[in-house]
Structure formats: structure tokens, C-alpha cells
Design a protein that fits this description.
The longest helix has 26 residues, at about 115-140. The protein has an eight-stranded mixed beta sheet, with helices on both faces. It is globular, with a radius of gyration of 18 Å. It has a single domain, classed as NAD(P)-binding Rossmann-like Domain (Rossmann fold), CATH 3.40.50. About 45% of the residues lie in helices and about 15% in strands. It starts with 14 loop residues before the first strand and ends with a helix. By secondary structure, the chain is an alpha/beta fold. Helix 6 packs antiparallel against helix 7 (about 225-240).
Length: about 300
């Protein structure tokens, strides 16, 4: 049978922050967090949709504790404001799901001038993690291992050369290469975070949902009318697993007492199935590249680990 949601232990007393918890994988994750006793903080741009999600969780999980706070990962100011609000309300954070993301969108820039997908999917989550790190460290100091789970995807194989000097594809943008770069960055960030913070009780994990039926493909197809966008939308709709199944890798990474930091959790059969540890090889597994990405991310966001740790 493999690992399943019923294997999640009691999470009473834990605080879980879920980006994009108002739909798809994030909603499935938020529901399971609440069902197992955690207080859930959903960060979302669309607060109306988030409120619908909160009510849905409440109807399915009597006594669920779910908060909603505004978060735009494409704005470093919004990230800072969100993190400040959450830390003020919850001095200790036990679980952080860096789950939200964009896929295959037209070329554009965040309000801070970053390529939209790299800026939102990676740099926004990098900044959020460091802004919330003091609260994660409080949880770790209290004897509970704090975990940060970054959602990657099979799209990471479309990252092309992954040239650290050209991750924003200035002047030669391709929506799928940009998406792949952001998803590869999510994985490398998770591994480097684990390397730098494991000794302090904060562990990093990467999670791949395989092919999961969510609004992500439909949104991408609406944003760009191309055969490639139509292909991926049709493929996932016809062969993909449910969001409930797709969320299992990140749920296992976050809650399984035996889960190992610095690893990738993914479906057994690549695109579907129960979550297992998946090997990572080649440059994407290179510690030197992961460290270089971290340093680049600090420069771009202006937030450093040294400044957070004091």
C-alpha cells in the first residue's frame, strides 16, 4: 500500500504555514494538517478563494483551526508583511510548505523586477523562509524538529543549461524553460537549506507531486494559447492523479518521523503512486551549485542567513 495520509501522526500543538493553501495541492495539504490537529496558516493572494477553502476545511474537519493571511510571493514587501504578521501571532512555527507557484506563464516581471516564475516560485519562497526562520528556530529549540518542504516538479528537467548567470532568461524567454528553472531552484534550495540548518534543528525537504490534477495546468493554458500548453493540460487531465494523492509526498516529508532531510520525496511510479524517496543525480545534486544558488538568492532578495541568525 505504501505511505498514506492516515499515517500522519497527531499534530496537536503544531503550527503549519501553507503557501497557496486555497486550492490544489495546498488545499489538500491544509486539509490534512487541520485533520491531524495542526493550526494552519494559509498564505494566499486571492483571499475570497482562501475563505472558501477555509470554510470547506471547516465543514470537513470539525474544530479545524485555519487562519488566512494575504501573501503575494511576487512582492518582497508582501512577503515581509506576511511573515511579520505570522511571527507576531505564532512565535513558533513547526512546518512550512513552500507550495504555491505559477507554471508556463507569459514573460513578465514581479513588482521587484524579477522574471515572474523565478521571482515567485523560488525567490519569493526563499525570502519567506528566511523571514520565518526565527519562528522555525523557536520550534526547533522547543524540541520539535522544524521542517521546510519545497514543492518541485518534473518540470525541473526542462531547466535547460541552468546557467546561474542567466536564470531569468533576459532577452530569450521561454515559458517552460523558466518554469523548469524555478522548479529546479526549489529543489536545490531545499537541499542547501538542510545542509546549512540541520544542525540547528531545521530540516529541508523537496517534494514532487508527479502528475496531479489541479488548476495549475488550466491556468497555464489560459495564460498562453500554444500547443505545448494544451498538450500538458490534456495529458495531466487524462493521466494525472488527484490533488489528494499529489500532496502525499509533501505531507510525508513534513510529518513522517523517519523522513530524512535533504531528500526528494516523489511518487513511486514517477508520475503517480505512494510517496517514496527519489534519488537525485547530476549537476542538480551538486552541493557547489546549490550553495551558489543560495548566495545568488541572498543577493537578489537582500536577505541573508547571517543577518537572520545575527
Amino acid at each position: 500500500m505504501g505511505w498514506k495520509a492516515s499515517d500522519i501522526p497527531d499534530l496537536a500543538g503544531r503550527v503549519a504555514v501553507v503557501t497557496g493553501g486555497n486550492g490544489g495541492l495546498g488545499l489538500a495539504t491544509s486539509r490534512q494538517m487541520a485533520a491531524h490537529g495542526a493550526l494552519v496558516v494559509i498564505g494566499a493572494r486571492n483571499l475570497e478563494k482562501a475563505e472558501v477553502a477555509r470554510k470547506l476545511i471547516g465543514s470537513e474537519v470539525p474544530g479545524a483551526s485555519v487562519e488566512i493571511r494575504p501573501l503575494d510571493l511576487g512582492s518582497l514587501d508582501s512577503v515581509e508583511a506576511f511573515a511579520g504578521q505570522v511571527r507576531a501571532a505564532h512565535p513558533a512555527i513547526h512546518l512550512l510548505f513552500n507550495n504555491a507557484g505559477l507554471m508556463g506563464v507569459p514573460e513578465g516581471q514581479t513588482v521587484d523586477g524579477f522574471e515572474t516564475q523565478f521571482g515567485t516560485n523560488h525567490l519569493g519562497h526563499f525570502a519567506l523562509t528566511l523571514r520565518l526562520l526565527p519562528a522555525l528556530l523557536v520550534a526547533a529549540a522547543g524540541g520539535t524538529q522544524a521542517r521546510v518542504v519545497c514543492t518541485t516538479s518534473l518540470g525541473r528537467v526542462t531547466a535547460g543549461k541552468f546557467d546561474l548567470a542567466d536564470l531569468q532568461l533576459r532577452g530569450h524567454y521561454n515559458p517552460w524553460t523558466a518554469y523548469g528553472i524555478s522548479k529546479r531552484a526549489n529543489l536545490e534550495f531545499a537541499f542547501e537549506l538542510d545542509r546549512r540548518l540541520a544542525s540547528r534543528g531545521v530540516r529541508g525537504f523537496a517534494a514532487d507531486p508527479g502528475f496531479s490534477k489541479t488548476d495549475l495546468q488550466k491556468t497555464a493554458r489560459r495564460s498562453m494559447k500554444s500547443m505545448q500548453h494544451r498538450f500538458w493540460d490534456v495529458l495531466v487531465r487524462t493521466t494525472g492523479q488527484s490533488a489528494r494523492m499529489g500532496a502525499l509526498p509533501q505531507l510525508r516529508a513534513a510529518t513522517d518521523p523517519t523522513a530524512v532531510g535533504g531528500k526528494l520525496y516523489a511518487p513511486r511510479w514517477i508520475t503517480f503512486g505512494a510517496p517514496v524517496v527519489r534519488g537525485v543525480r547530476g549537476r542538480i545534486a551538486d552541493p557547489a551549485e546549490q550553495a551558489a544558488l543560495w548566495e545568488l538568492s541572498e543577493r537578489e532578495t537582500g536577505i541573508t542567513l547571517a543577518s537572520v541568525l545575527g
